[in-house]
Amino acid sequence: MIKTMIVFGTRPEAIKMAPLIKELQNDSNFDVRVCVTAQHRQMLDQVLEIFDIKPDYDLNIMKHNQSLYSVTADVILKFEEVLKKEKPDIVLVHGDTTTTFASALSAFYYRTKIGHVEAGLRTFNKYSPFPEEMNRKLTAALCDVHFAPTKRAKLNLLKEGIKEEDIFVTGNTVIDTLKYTVQKDYKFREPILNRIDYTKKVITLTAHRRENFGKPLENIFEAVANLADQFDDVLFVYPVHLNPNVRDAAERILRNHPRIILIDPVDVDDMHNLIARSYLVLTDSGGLQEEAPSLGKPVVVLRDTTERPEAVLANTVKVAGTDKHNIVDVVKRLLTDEEEYSKMAHAINPYGDGFASRRIKDALLYYFGYRKEKPEEFKGSDLYV
Ligand code: UD1
Ligand code: UDP
To answer: Which end of the chain has fewer CB atoms surrounding its CB within 10 Å, N or C?
Structure first.
């Protein structure tokens, strides 16, 4: 059996690791252990509950308004204890958070194999997003096997000197998750979401990037308030991230507007079904840039760069940056120009076909010599390089 230690700490990692955990647990070739760092506490627990995941180890590191230093140090030290106890054949990390990098570094010091899920995303700008661009680059340098969601991600890794035989193009596991969560007659857990009039143009908003704290975040919120003032057929729904840097600014600028609904973070099935009922999505999130295009919803990205250019190439995502006037102009156009809107509102799936977890499992079986043929790659992203 392949003793596999899956480690993650934040909401998006959990959402994207959940289908892979299920896939590996259902295969008798794998002995699966789950370790959560709990870099996020409440937002992680929300996901664990929905997918009924019971971690074998919970490092419980979250502190109020924590620093990158404390997260990094705590993960490295506490994960060492888990590694010593479990002696896994392979550690699987996900994406680009500080949990990702620090747990990969800890696993490297322990000299165990490491696999990187969602490998190869790049903006080529060290500080955007910060610290994620360096987290994922450094993680790639530490890993032995790389599960690239798209062809473009694979090409990025090849350029950094990663060997082709160690890269598998699998699609993104978030599309596997969407298959479970999105339903036609869905009833929301959050009662406010059941009371919304979806014949209005509902705009789902999220924002939490560190490089946007301060003025850029204020610009974003002022643009939203301005749009809500101008359009009375529009309703903004904003599940506010628990980071205090985000919450304080959101409360100050957006609370008490009749067309802006601020709510706490919602469960992932609520979120996916909310996107499915929205007119468009405004976000600086990574995951939403993958989910919304799959659901046929245009995305306006509130950042200067994106590591997910596939949907920009397919014209369902526009990068608006954090300039207040620019955000207002881009969103206004999508609210008033039907032709422009319908050009962007088509479902595309450059990020996956719902079988990424199975491909990752097959790749692991191949890597450890349990199967002879290299698994077929995900081809749906080949046009977007
Ligand atoms: C982290 C990741 C980011 C990812 C994001 C997903 C890093 C450096 N950042 O950013 O890449 O996109 O998660 O959401 O790895 N908090 C709570 N409860 C929670 C979660 C957060 O109270 O469940 C508050 C705490 O005060 C915490 C703060 O938010 O200290 C910041 O959390 P942290 O994980 O450091 O940063 P995020 O902005 O969440
Ligand atoms: N999400 C959620 N509840 C919310 C807001 C977001 O479940 O209230 C989901 C969202 O659908 C996506 C993921 O969380 O799957 C994105 O997480 P986040 O934006 O925090 O991180 P990023 O993707 O930017 O790393």
So the answer is: N
